[in-house]
């Protein structure tokens, strides 16, 4: 079996190219494939390979200053879902183009709700502990949403994460009396979106800690319909973290899927 990991962490990276070069060497020696993005604001990675090799690389990565708290979401597949290893240095670990929408600039993370608490809110009729209605805000693009989302979620007709602010504008008034929970695949986009919204006057926004994959891992699929698109040959994962397509799509097809949108 192949072990897959999705992980990101915001931390100042003084020399992104040095970290990227080190990760390329470590992943190559361990036989790992996937995508690694390094930026001055942190790291974002989707990798797959032999379990011992993958866990060894993650353990060594946590030895870098600032990356001790790297949190990982794991899943398994029978086949390698990536065609190659890509390690890149980028201005951001997910492009949003709002420089203050990062914990490094804001000085703290946006307030978060953990998966068990959110599941409880959804189970009690979609209301938080104060009785306010909970609105799930999907920060992913339309292609991803087509594979699944939370029941009744507010979805936006965007192709790129950078389009979210404009697409959200018509909904702001309707959201003012709700507890808004932003979510995405693994947590990066909903974290940036929640920070930006709060900085832009929406103080009723929380992020789903760990994103959809973290929710699946901790509580399963309560309140979720369909699967979670993952930008590799597995196409999407169900709430038990099982691939929608485990075999039969080759590595080149996986690359095509990965180019269609953001990761995280």
Describe this structure in words.
The two termini are 23 Å apart. This protein is α/β, with parallel strands linked by helices and 264 residues long. The relative contact order is 0.17. β9, α8 (188-199) and β10 (205-208) form a beta-alpha-beta unit. The longest helix is centred in the N-terminal third of the chain and has 15 residues, at 16-30. It folds into two domains: 2-93 and 244-259, Alpha-Beta Plaits (2-Layer Sandwich); 103-226, Rhodanese-like domain (Oxidized Rhodanese, domain 1, 3-Layer(aba) Sandwich), CATH 3.40.250. The radius of gyration is 18 Å and the shape is globular. The strands form four sheets. Strands 4-1-3-2-5 form a five-stranded mixed β-sheet, sandwiched between helices. A four-stranded parallel β-sheet has the order 6-10-9-7. Residues 247-251 and 257-261 have low confidence and may be disordered. It has helices at residues 16-30, 51-61, 103-106, 115-123, 142-145, 164-168, 172-175, 188-199, 211-219, 251-259; strands at 2-10, 33-39, 42-49, 71-77, 85-89, 112-113, 134-138, 148-150, 179-183, 205-208, 224-226, 228-229, 236-237. The protein is 31% helix and 23% strand. α1 (16-30) runs antiparallel to α2.
Which SSEs are present, and which pair or pack?
Elements: E1 2-10, H1 16-30, E2 33-39, E3 42-49, H2 51-61, E4 71-77, E5 85-89, H3 103-106, E6 112-113, H4 115-123, E7 134-138, H5 142-145, E8 148-150, H6 164-168, H7 172-175, E9 179-183, H8 188-199, E10 205-208, H9 211-219, E11 224-226, E12 228-229, E13 236-237, H10 251-259
Parallel strand pairs: 2-5, 6-10, 7-9, 9-10
Antiparallel strand pairs: 1-3, 1-4, 2-3, 8-11, 12-13
């Amino acid at each position: 079996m192949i072990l897959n990991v999705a992980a990101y962490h915001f931390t100042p990276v003084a020399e992104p190219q040095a970290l990227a070069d080190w990760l390329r060497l470590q992943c190559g020696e361990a036989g790992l494939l996937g995508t690694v993005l390094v930026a001055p604001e942190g790291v974002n990675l989707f990798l797959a390979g032999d379990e011992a090799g993958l866990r060894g690389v993650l353990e060594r990565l946590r030895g870098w200053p600032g990356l001790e708290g790297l949190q990982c979401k794991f899943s398994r597949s029978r086949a390698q879902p990536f065609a190659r290893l890509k390690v890149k240095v980028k201005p951001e670990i997910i492009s949003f183009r709002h420089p203050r929408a990062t914990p490094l600039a804001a000085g703290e993370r946006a307030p978060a709700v953990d998966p068990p608490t959110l599941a409880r809110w959804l189970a009690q009729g979609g209301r938080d502990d104060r009785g306010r209605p909970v609105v799930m805000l999907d920060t992913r693009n339309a292609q991803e949403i087509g594979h699944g989302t939370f029941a009744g979620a507010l979805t936006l007709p965007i192709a790129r994460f950078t389009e979210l602010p404009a697409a959200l504008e018509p909904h702001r008034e309707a959201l003012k009396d709700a507890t808004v929970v932003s979510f995405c695949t693994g947590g990066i986009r909903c974290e940036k979106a929640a920070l930006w919204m709060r900085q832009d006057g929406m103080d009723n926004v929380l992020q789903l800690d760990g994103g959809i994959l973290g929710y699946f891992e901790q509580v399963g699929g309560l309140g979720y319909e369909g699967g979670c698109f993952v930008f590799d040959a597995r196409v999407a994962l169900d709430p038990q973290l099982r691939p929608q397509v485990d075999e039969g799509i080759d590595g080149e097809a996986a690359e095509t899927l990965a180019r269609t949108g953001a990761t995280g």
